[in-house]
TrEMBL record:
Gene3D superfamilies: 2-enoyl-CoA Hydratase, Chain A, domain 1. Pfam families: ECH_1. This is Enoyl-CoA hydratase. The keyword Repressor does not apply. Keywords: Lipid metabolism, Lyase. One of its GO terms (biological process) is fatty acid beta-oxidation. CDD domains: crotonase-like (cd06558). Belongs to the enoyl-CoA hydratase/isomerase family. One of its GO terms (molecular function) is lyase activity.
């Protein structure tokens, strides 16, 4: 039974992966493991069309549990590094579209977690950053994904300086996709997620795998494209498109 992480179903097809460790939602090893386990369960649930990742109304996550880091020996850090890195990347492995709904702060490992989502929506009072360098450390899971998202030069600036970014700069960099009023963060995420309910789940998952393939995306796209011809959704989609144009298909997720 998870202590800090829950998965709720507010409406058909939508899952909310929520972590709550008041007051600042700091991510320690236990929270990371619970997040990874929940992400794995969600990815296997074909009744879920889209996923919202949420802290709470006040704060998404203020980052790493520094007190825990301070206790680790080099041997302990090496022993947990692989599992912790995988956990912080866990959102990127979910086959359904994911959106991080961010209030207050997304710092350190909290921002690394959010970088794994397909979309990031923040309140217009949010601060983001990767301040690990100020502790004599580096981000464990976020450097490569950040570089792909905003470019290597901008990523180096954020990682090397450890500085915070306000909503205006975050949007200009492409670090976030939408900035809304603080009280509207969850509602905006829910609105984005709803568009995938009843959608072509197999094709969406295939598209995510192609994006994840990076430099091998062209090769992966060929394989995924051909495999989709075996699905019911492809038959439904092409026939509906021929008869009624785009947007009329009723997909079944198979």
């Amino acid at each position: 039974m998870a202590e800090f992480v829950t998965v709720d179903r507010p409406e058909a097809g939508i899952a909310v992966l929520r972590f709550a460790r008041p007051p600042m939602n700091l991510i320690d090893l236990q929270v990371a493991r619970e997040l990874a386990e929940a992400a794995e369960r969600i990815g296997c649930d074909h009744g879920i069309a889209a996923v919202i990742v949420y802290g709470d109304e006040r704060v998404f996550s203020a980052g790493d549990e520094v007190a825990e880091l301070d206790r680790w020996t080099p041997q302990q850090a090496e022993a947990v590094a692989d599992g912790l890195q995988s956990a912080l990347r866990g959102l990127s492995l979910i086959s359904q579209p994911t959106v991080a709904a961010i209030s207050g702060y997304a710092l350190g490992s909290g921002l690394e977690l959010a970088l794994g989502a397909d979309r990031r929506i923040i309140g217009d009072n949010v601060k983001l950053g990767l301040p690990q360098i100020r502790m004599g450390l580096i981000p464990l899971a976020g450097i490569h994904r950040l570089s792909l998202l905003i470019g290597e030069a901008a990523a180096k600036d954020l990682v090397f300086s450890g500085r915070f970014v306000d909503p205006k700069e975050a949007a200009a960099l492409g670090l976030v996709d939408e900035v809304v009023a603080p009280d509207d963060v969850y509602t905006a995420a829910l609105r984005w997620a709803r568009q995938f309910v009843g959608g072509p789940a197999r094709a969406l998952a295939a598209a995510k795998r192609v994006f994840a393939a990076g430099g091998h995306g062209s090769e992966r796209a060929r394989a995924e494209w051909a495999a989709l011809f075996e699905t019911e959704d492809r038959s439904i989609g092409t026939r509906s498109y021929l008869a009624d144009g785009p947007g009329a298909a009723e997909f079944v997720g198979r």
